[in-house]
Structures are given as C-alpha cells and as structure tokens.
Amino acid sequence: MKTRTEEMKMLLAGQWVLRDDTIDVFDSGNGERIATVPKATRDDMKHAIEAAQETFESLDSWPVHERISILKRVSHFMLENQEAFARTIALEGSKTINEARGEVKRAAQTIEISAEEARRIQGETINFDQNEGSENKVGYYYHFPVGVVGAITPFNDPLNLVAHKVGPAIAAGNAIVVKPASETPLSALKLAEAFTEAGLPEGMLSVVTGPGREIGDELVTHPFIKALSFTGGTEAGKKITEKTGTKHVSMELGSNSPVIVLKDADLKDAVEACVDGGFSAAGQNCIGVQRVYVEKESYPFFLDDFIEKTRELKLGEKLLEETDVGPLISEKEAERIESWIEEAVSKGAQIETGGTRTKAYIEPTILSNVPSDATIAKEEVFGPVVIVEAVEDLKEAVRKSNDVDYGLHAGIFTKDVNQAFYAVKHLNVGGVMVNDSSDYRIDAMPFGGTKDSGIGREGVKFAIDSLTEKKVVSFKLTDPFA
Q1: Do residues 246 and 261 both lie within one domain?
Q2: What is the pLDDT of residues 66-106, one digit of tens each?
Q3: What string of H, E and C letters represents the secondary structure of 311-354?
Q4: Are 183 and 311 in the same domain?
Q5: May I ask which residue range the UniProt record assigns to the signal sequence (predicted)?
Q6: Who contacts 143 (Cβ-Cβ below 8 Å, separation ≥6)?
C-alpha cells in the first residue's frame, strides 16, 4: 500500500509556514516519498535568526522555573506520543521501529535532564583576598546565556541529536535556530511541535528546513549567532570552522571506533556487545564498532562466535517488529559502502559474512585481513561493516586503535584492572568503555572526541556550559567586615 505524502510546515520565527518550493522526504527502505517540507531560502534563515535575537532580548531575564516547566512539558508530550514519534523516525530514517522507540525514550530523557540541569546552572564565590592588596574585595561569577544558538543536525539520530541541541540551549536561556538534515527533517519538526504545545515563547525556537549549501552559510556566519553546535561529517565540520570566526563552536564529527578483546575477556559478552554495537541502526552510528582487535589466543573463537551471531540478525523492513537491521539512509550511501568493501577485498581482505548489497540494504558484514591502507580501515564507514584483526597483545591493540585520524570512543574487554587502566590512559579517545563496546553512551555524560572527531563536549550539563558565558563580579568594600 502506498504511503500518503504529507505536506509539512516548518517553524519559522514562531509561525508554522509553507513555501512554494519544497524538499521531498523519502522512505529509504522502499524509495517512496512520504512527505514534503519547505525549501527555505537564505532570507528565511535570516528572518529566523533576527526574530530569535529580538525574542531573546525581549525576554531580558527569562526565569529558570519557566524554562524548567516548558522542558518538563515537552518531555511528557514526547512520551505521551511515543509511537507517533517512533514511526516518524523509522519512516524517514534508517532505524527499525524498535530502535526508533528507544530513541524517543532517550530524547525525552535528554529533555528531562535539560530541565534538571537548568536549576543547577550555578557560579561560585571567589576568594579575591588570595591576592595581596585585594583584602577588601569580595565577589563571585555567574553564568548567563550567550543569546542565539545555531544548530546543524545529521540524519542518523533525527530526534535525539536535535534534543541534545535544543534542550541545553533552552535550559541555559538561549534562543535557538535548528537546521535539520534534509533527509530526516520530520522528527525535528515534531519536536518543535512539542515545544510549541508546551508554551515556548514564539521565536525562541525555529526549525528551518532546506539544503545546507543555500541556508547553512547564513546560520554559520550571521553575527547574531553567538554559538554553533554541529554534528556531522569531519570535512563539513572543517569547512564550517573556517567561517565561524569568534563564535562558540561545538562539533561532534566522524569516528572509526575500535574495540579491544583480550584473552581473559568474557567472549560471549564481547561478541554480543560487538554485534549490537556494530550493526544497530544499520551501522550508521558515530560510536558504532568498526574495528575489533582480539588477542591471538582468543581470535578464532571470537571470530567464529561473532560470525554466527551476526548471521542471526534479520535484515528487513524497518516497521516490522522482527527486523534487526534496516536499510542505509539512501541507495547512494549503500553503493559507497559496497565500493569500500570491494576495494578492501581487491587489496586482500576476506569477507567472513555478508558483503552483498540490495538497493539501500547492505548485509551485516565482517571483514578480516584488511590492509591498513584500505579506505574502510582508515575512514568512518558509517554502515554495517566490522573489521576483525588478531593482535599479539594489548600494546599492539592500543597502537593500532590510535592509528587513525579519529578518537571518539573505544571499548576494551578484560578482567584485569591493570590492563583496563593501561587502555584508559593510552587510548587517544574521548571515552573508554571497559567491558562494553564503543557504542555506549548515556545522555548525561560528556560526549565528544579527540583529533578529527570533534571540538568540545555534548551531554546536557557540558553543552549548557558551552552555551553560557561566565561573568565575574567584584565588590570593593570601603570598610570590610566592620
């Protein structure tokens, strides 16, 4: 049965609007058009930013209790409408319906945490008398909002990654303008609907739909944008940093996450974690498992079990309850991954399972004997492909783990706390998951990477810090403590 195409409006400066020019949104699983959204112009983006600045200034000092109430109402709205949100995520993106339900819960929690952290935006008193000559001074510092925040979000977590931009921005008292991925704008629009229903002041949030090449530059360069939060590809991130000037910039970029499995590890646990971490969301996950280094004594046993468990995964339609792995976001992306697999095989790699493509679907794939100069070994595959390699010991595993331009997350499986701490100290990444795969995150923890994996940290508390300024206040007392 053909899916009905919906004509969606975008939230522009507090108003839900249409445009004559539109962008089609497709179900990547079957290629059907499921919706159209307005194709915003540069003038639309400029209007959204200027309205956000005007609204921000008009609120002057926006009480924290009002921000908390709005965020709590948004979280409640999301959970009340969980199935509608989940269906939207699954239809426009790559996640199965079960994965999409999980994303809704996480996004609602992200908004809830934002409400909780809003009440904890606190400063500290400063002991000015630590400095000779300042005995008659007292003071403190406090946080105040930067103003208008710009946010650019990717397709792979179309709701929760938007929540990670909007929740902290509102909690900190900022206005925010979001440009969601053109492939998956519908979830962002549904979140905007939740904020509208919750009573967010008009103009504090705009979700502007359109191609980045036409409206992105305005968002990145407009002088009213004081902070920019970007999640996406490394090359795009580098281009953005060339244009942002002195704005606050936070970026979560690419990855090529390793997992180390030592000979003393619980292999069953390691295999299950790597299957889930490598193939959930069809591998389109920035902290998904891409490389696994196994001590040679355990390598054949790990590989056999890893292949067996991977072959049990059901590839299929996203909305079916029994589906484990859905399609890639587009057939073009699937073709790219297929070409990377073929290149690796041409250089000597072996396909242990999977490796075939049908339209936008790639079978969950395990590769061995992959040479270090293969593209798939060096770059972020962002698809359901995992490389497995035997290593002599932990030091070799750590050295190979670090031998890429990325450093987001890593995992290590071991029962030896000393080995674990060696990995924690020497892995050049933003997070080390001990006895778990790289694909572990809670929304309250600091999240980000080293090298080409990004700048700064997300995670609600840490995002709020990057979206506020610190102001120091010092009082000179004429007769202190009289």
Answers
A1: no
A2: 999 999 999 999 999 999 999 999 999 999 999 999 999 99
A3: HCCCECCCCCCCCCECCCCCHHHHHHHHHHHHHHHHCCCEEEEC
A4: no
A5: none
A6: 121, 122, 123, 172, 465, 468, 469, 470, 471
Q: Are residues 225 and 320 in the same domain?
A: no
Place of tokens 């924690």: 424
Catalytic residue among 252, 333, 389, 458: 252
Catalytic status, residue 274: no
Q: Domain limits at 287?
A: 257-434
Residue reference for tokens 């809670």:
442
Same domain, yes or no: 242 and 134? yes
211 belongs to a structural domain? yes
Annotated catalytic residue, options 112, 218, 286, 333: 286
Cα-based torsion angle of the residue sequence 149, 155, 158, 160 in order, rounded to the nearest 10 degrees: -70
pLDDT at 1 over 50: no
Residue 4 has pLDDT above 90, yes or no: no
Q: Do 298 and 423 share a domain, yes or no? A: yes
Residues 342 and 268 in one domain: yes
- Looking at the chain, the whole-number percentage of residues with pLDDT higher than 70 is 99
Express each pLDDT in 150-205 by its tens digit: 999 999 999 999 999 999 999 999 999 999 999 999 999 999 999 999 999 999 99
Residue 220: pLDDT over 80: yes
Q: What is the DSSP string of 379-391?
A: S---SSEEEEEEE
Q: Let me know whether 130 and 264 are in one domain.
A: no
Q: Domain holding 460: CATH number?
A: 3.40.605.10
Looking only at the bridges linking them, the beta strands covering 225-231 and 148-152 are parallel
